[in-house]
Amino acid sequence: MKTLYKREMKQEAGDVETHKWTGFPSTDKPWLKYYSEEAVRGKLPACSAYELLYRNNKNCLSDTALNYYGRKITYGKLFEEIQKTACAFAAIGVGEGDTVVLCTVNVPETVYALYALNRLGAIANLVDPRTSEDGLRCYFNESAARVVLTVDLACPMIQKAIRGTAVRCIILVSPADSLPVGKQFACRLKRKPAALSQEVLSWRAFTNGGASASVKYADYRPARCFVMAHTGGTTGTPKSVMLSDDNLNSVTYAYDYIGIPFQRGHRYFNDLPPFIIYGLSLAVHTTLCHGLEVILYPVFDSREFPKLFARYKPHHFSALSDHLYYLSTSPATRKMDLSFLVTAAMGGDSLNVELEKSVNRYLADHGCKYEVAKGYGMTELAATAILSFPGANKTGSIGVPLVINTVKIVDPETGKELGYNETGELWISGPSVMLGYYENPQADAETLVTDGQGRCWIKTGDLAHVDEDGLVFHDGRIRRIYLTVSKGQPAKIFPTLVEQTILECEGVDDCMVVGRFMKDSAYYEPVAFVVAHQGNALQDTLAARCRIALPDYMWPAEYRFVDAIPLTPVGKKDYRTLEAEVGKYLREGAGEYH
Q1: What CATH number is given to the structural domain containing 558?
Q2: Which of 21, 164, 166, 195 is packed most tightly, with the most Cβ within 10 A?
Q3: For the chain, how many structural domains are there in total?
Q4: Structure pTM?
Q5: Are 228 and 143 in contact (CB under 8 A)?
Q6: How many CB atoms lie within 10 A of CB 187?
Q7: 485: pLDDT confidence band, cut at 50, 70 and 90?
Q8: How far apart are CA 358 and CA 336, in angstroms?
Q9: Which of 290, 257, 281, 253 is nearest to 13 (CA)?
């Protein structure tokens, strides 16, 4: 199998760069005033992800690590299951440098497998179970994976996709496997069991097979890939991001110093799927390394969130803006005492200022001492890179860079670094910058920039500015990506994929796709502007083509036939004008939503 190694960061694991003062935001670092001297001069952990998890919890084995539908799994039990899973992987030949595809949801077995693979020095390739057959086959072939761990409902598609690949073993996990006994029986009655064979193992058969296996655990290596995550889309070939132990551990380190109390025993509600790096890096690794009780919930549903919040009463959660809206307006939570709530975090997309004010009023009126925690991140940065926290927040901002990071604002046309309050492209540097895209040097060259001091920067593709207090404000996107939801899970609309599909149709001269908010929602739907001689007569043809080539959440909700796509003064297609033309729905009581 292929072994995934990549460049080493010039900044050694352990060194958080200290203050410089030369008159520009990236070297002034005004955001460092929000951090202690210990944070600024601290040493990053130089160990594997599993080792950091074990080191932080080995003396608290009776504390609850995972809560799955009321079944509580202690840290002691978690380490036992990780050990058992590592033995099982070793028994089927998985070792250092091998890749195992995890095509799963939020179940305890996903957590066991993740850290078991880390102990072995193997790579966890995180794949969305909704991925098409061709997309799955691409992932399997890309990393030469021989083993796939998946949820039982995805098994039929996986079995089709492994044809012509190196995959020889499929391990099935059912959401019922770790349920409390009473709920387990009821769940199994509703689900048709998958057919097992020599190639298709149940989780129990898999773990039993490792009972007598001998295991060789891997030594920590700073530049070794720990997980592969993907930049989005369930069709085509999205880019595969390689992240190391250091990438994820550095984010965990940074959360030690943000002034939000992550106290041992606090409950953290997690319905973010593990194939989204935000769900893995923050909602699993960081929270467990801080000794929290992680409530695993495998279904992402913002409308049901208030009921789940009322049931579990978590001290922390990370969500999308829709979660916050429903939390603040639902009858289930309208009269709740929220004095226990510490973190109501929002990521994934910009938070409308009016909604931010409305939710903050709701939190304060119900006894919560904290405001909404906003943030910004990317898969290429192991999730969170910028975050607001007590004392480092302004309405409309996305917070300040984590202490491990440096940001700068760059003019996209000239490459010149801009000063305070000037809008340009947001660039970010720090120890959470990915190892690179897997076998994609062209994408590396387009996204990663190394400066004269050897520091590597991520070009985010987002517009932002930094004020004199070090607060970062998101000002829009250079690249168009819109957040939506499909089958209970978050997803992203990539307009270029839709445009390419439409442009393949005969009679289409030009096309541009933009997003508009769906009615009464924070999620987008695509609208296609099409230049075609036949006009409306082509609509059925275009719709049929999109249904064949694209996942359903990328099908345009509307086709608008126009004479020409508008251009900016410099001759580029003006998607902002088209966004304004499709308009934005208003939500009662929240004002304009974006």
Answers
A1: 3.30.300.30
A2: 166
A3: 1
A4: 0.81
A5: yes
A6: 15
A7: confident
A8: 16
A9: 253
